[in-house]
Amino acid sequence: MRSLGVLFSCAWAAVAIRVDWPVKKSCETPGDIVIGGLMMVHEREDTVVCGPVMPQGGIQAVETMLYTLDIINKRSKWLTIGAHILDDCDKDTYGLEMAVDFIKGSISNLDDAEPTCNKSQVKKVISGVVGAASSVTSVQVANLLRLFKIPQVSYFSTSPELSNKQRFEYFTRTIPSDHHQVQAMVELVRRLGWSYVSIVYEESNYGIKAFEELEVLLAKYDICIAVKEKLVKDSGVAEETVYDNIILKLQTKPRAKGVIIFGSDQEVAGLMKAVRRCNAVGTFTWIGSDGWSARDLVSSGNEPEVEGTLSVQPQANPVAGFEEYFLSLTVENNKRNPWFVEFWEDHFKCRYPDSSPTPYNIRFVRECSDKDKLTKDDIVFEKQLQFVSDAVMAFAVALQNMHRDLCGNFKGICSRMNPTKGPELLRYLRSVSFEGLSGDKFRFDNNGDGPARYNIIHFKQTTPGIYQWVTVGQYIEGELHLNDSEIFFNTGTLLPPESVCSLPCSQGQAKKYVEGERCCWHCFNCSQYHVLDSEDETQCIHCPAGTLPDANQKLCKPLPEVYLRVESGWAIGAMSLSLAGIIATLFVVTVFARHNNTPIVKAAGRELSYVLLSGILLCYSITFALVIRPTNLVCGIQRFGAGFCFTVVYAALFTKTNRISRIFKAGKRTTKRPSFISPRSQLIICSFLISFQVIINILWMIVSPPNAIHYHPTREDNLLVCSSYIDASYMIAFAYPILLIIVCTVYAVLTRNIPEAFNESKHIGFTMYTTCIIWLAFVPLYFATGNHMPLRITSMSVTISLSASVTVICLFSPKLYIILIKPERNVRQSMMQSKRSALKSGTTASVMVGALPVAHPIVTSESLMRLHQERTSCSEIKTISGQLTKYTQTSPKHQTEKNAVNCNST
To answer: How far apart, in whole angstroms, are the C-alpha atoms of residue 835 and residue 757?
Structure first.
């Protein structure tokens, strides 16, 4: 028996040697008009021209075309359509060779002077061609058919290149272009959150064109390509190392878990076997193209390798009635399909009686029997047969519409359609609109492509050990709809694997890109006062002064403005002091106004007193300008007012002290009245002194206009201040008033020995001493509080108010005492008597701030002038002169002689 088996094997081997392969066959059906069909009945093979029979995309596609023609011819009353179907073995060169048959009839019709011997040969005129399946073959065939103006409708060719109607004018397809498929795949990648993927693409028109579009779209959405590898067409089946090298290259970028594979089923099947050989099962998640997904050739036997795949498939529904039709076929009842016997043998692994030997059926020992029947359980149907049926239907509808317009009710082909003109048929073809056998409505788009409708299918384990392709979403006209709960990845979870080169940087971190990588980076922290640049994520930018980074270090948020607010305790305290001062000053003004013509008011110098009180009111009022929110106008008022109010006060005091000094100096020399001591002269002098401050302020504002600015002494400070506050320039406003204070103080010192009866100079002196002490305390406080603006402004306003208060108390309280409490002394006679008694007694009355005189009325320089003006007796003048000599250390002899001369002259 063993020897017989060996002899049997040898006999079959001998038969195999004599096999004539491939055998050119054609499937033909009669009809008034014949359309061609170019199908990939056999698989592509490296070692021979044609490989084994292809059950799904081959035999089932042929039968779908025949089945659709049967239904069309049953429905048609006026026209029948026949077929002439050839096999291209999924090879572009062989397919082009087969396509030459389609143009033989057209060539004979081009030449009316054809030799008589050729006229006896009947040649079929092909009106159009359905096919090819492969984009590579369709490109070759389309270039040939275009020369003879034969319309072509492909059902599986998806290359975007074929949408170019300038190159492929007569090419049309029922399946959508890969341009839409690429968009759907990129949307799928984005939905999964991937930013770093690898691409494996077939080295063919189908793969290369898709890869070019993938590159553009992925870059548009900042998705980087980690590895890009080519699947060399027609070489993978023979060379396992080609596929192994691709998987090894993918493993060099382990963070790129997502891999897009754009190829055909045979190449991808070899790649999946390499995944197992390289121990890469579960390492990657595949995004598949329509060329290989949902194909048993890829998934059968490679289930763990393919598991988790998400694929984009043109949306197709089953062709109504086709499954029942196909399952009813046998070799005996399907003689019109010359390749069906090969399918039968391959499916049942048997040798059909009297069948022609092929390189593949010679291996089968068992002879096929009548018990072999096709059943639904052992047949896997191609899911995209709708596109084959729609391609046949498109030709049928176009021919019927053309027949209706050109032949009317003529049954069969009229002369106007014999032969059919390609350009005219193409025009009818592009405008068809019908409902196919799948129940879907169909029409071509502007590029002659099918509508962009896709199913998102997923290969997963539905039950233990059972794997299936399951529809989990759709991509319709640019919108992706995905049922995430139905997707189960090979990672063992519902969550998609992470396919990113580098994780996103944390808040407040910038990127430093790895050289040569757009999606790979290292993260580094932005420093304390920096934020991430919104336009350049590799840069940290410094927040400008007055701003600080937010918690996420993304934005520079402005710091709140710090200024002395009216409702704050500092401001309320300063304003309360000022308001009390204003009330007190207004009270003094009111008292003086009501007793304007009394001796005490006149003796105090009414005009200068009112000027002095006005200045004091300004001093108190300036506080309200200091505590409100700084603006340019407010800053101008502050700058002008702070110095001006003091100038008014101390200009008046200077005028007073100067007048007293001049009167007593003149009294030592002569009884002649000194010049410029009248009220009018005093006002002019005072105004002249004030005008200096006005000129200084005007020049200062011209040179340096007042502005409200934001001052940042530290990075975390944002002070809203007037520009003069940030340095010593504000002291310009006080320079002139300080000079007046110094001069007044000097005069106060010089007139300290004036007889006590003339004690107004002492009050002025005490005022100036106290003022100097206040300002000596203020200046260091002002510069020490530069970063505490509320305190600085408050100290300034309080200092101004205190200076004004000292002036009010020291200069005006003694006069108010006389006016309000001792009105009996506010008479001219009393004052004159007191003058004389005071001069004769030589007693000293101490006058202190807050301790008002009791025994003696106030006698001012005004009283002294009245003594001169009333021509006091010589004896009195001598007494006065003696007193003056005592206090001024003047020689008695010299002074006596001088007084005698003056008396004599009088």
So the answer is: 7
Q: Is 425 helix (H, G, I), strand (E, B) or coil?
A: helix
Q: How far is CA 596 from CA 464, 609, 673, 680, in A?
A: 116, 11, 25, 17
Instruction: Count CB-CB contacts under 10 A for residue 383.
Output: 21
Give me the DSSP letters along 63-109.
HHHHHHHHHHHHH-SS--EEEEEEE-TT-HHHHHHHHHHHHHHHHHH
Which residues have CB under 8 Å from 662's CB, separation 6+?
Answer: 674, 677
**Residue 134 to residue 124: CA distance in whole angstroms:** 25
Length of the chain: 906
Return the higher-pLDDT residue of 834 and 231.
231
What is the Cα gyration radius of the chain?
57
| Cα distances (Å, whole numbers) of residue 54 to 20, 38, 354, 742 | 19, 14, 21, 116
This prediction has a pTM of 0.57
Residue type at 149? K
Say if residues 761 and 810 touch (Cβ distance below 8 Å). Answer: no
Neighbouring CB atoms inside 10 A of 860's CB total: 25
HSE-CB of 315 using CA atoms within 13 angstroms: 19
Sign of the torsion formed by the C-alpha atoms of 436, 439, 441 and 444: negative
Give the residue with greater pLDDT, 708 vs 490: 708
Contacts of 841 (CB under 8 A, 6+ apart): none
Q: How many CB atoms within 10 Å of residue 299?
A: 23
Parallel/antiparallel/unpaired status of strands 33-39 and 310-314: unpaired
Sign of the C-alpha dihedral, residues 8, 13, 14, 19? positive
Cβ–Cβ under 8 Å, residues 340 and 407? no
Residue 320, SS3 per DSSP? coil
CB atoms closer than 10 angstroms to residue 637: 19
Say yes or no to pLDDT of 834 above 80.
Answer: no
Determine the Cα–Cα distance for residues 355 and 859; give it in Å rounded to an integer.
153
Q: Distance between CA 469 and CA 491 in Å, rounded?
A: 18
Q: Which of the 8 DSSP states describes residue 175?
A: S
Residue 163, judged by CB atoms within 10 A of its CB (0-12, 13-18, 19+), counts as buried
Helix (H, G, I), strand (E, B) or coil at 650: helix
- Quickly tell me which residue has 């019709």 as its tokens: 109
DSSP notation for 306-317:
HTT-EEEEE---
Helices (H), 264-384: 265-277, 296-299, 303-306, 322-327, 340-348
State the pairing for strand pair 547-549/556-558.
Answer: antiparallel
Over range 176-191, report the average pLDDT.
93
353-357 long-range contacts, Cβ below 8 Å, gap at least 24? 356/23, 357/15, 357/16, 357/18, 357/19
Cα angle, residue 420 at apex, residues 417 and 423 outer, rounded to 5°: 120
Q: C-alpha angle 2/5/6, rounded to 5°?
A: 90
The pLDDT value given to residue 793: 80
Q: How far apart are CA 838 and CA 845, in angstroms?
A: 10
The residue whose two tokens read 């492969």 is 134
Pick the more confident residue, 386 or 854: 386
Rounded to the nearest 10 degrees, the angle between the axes of helix 760-784 and helix 732-750 is: 150
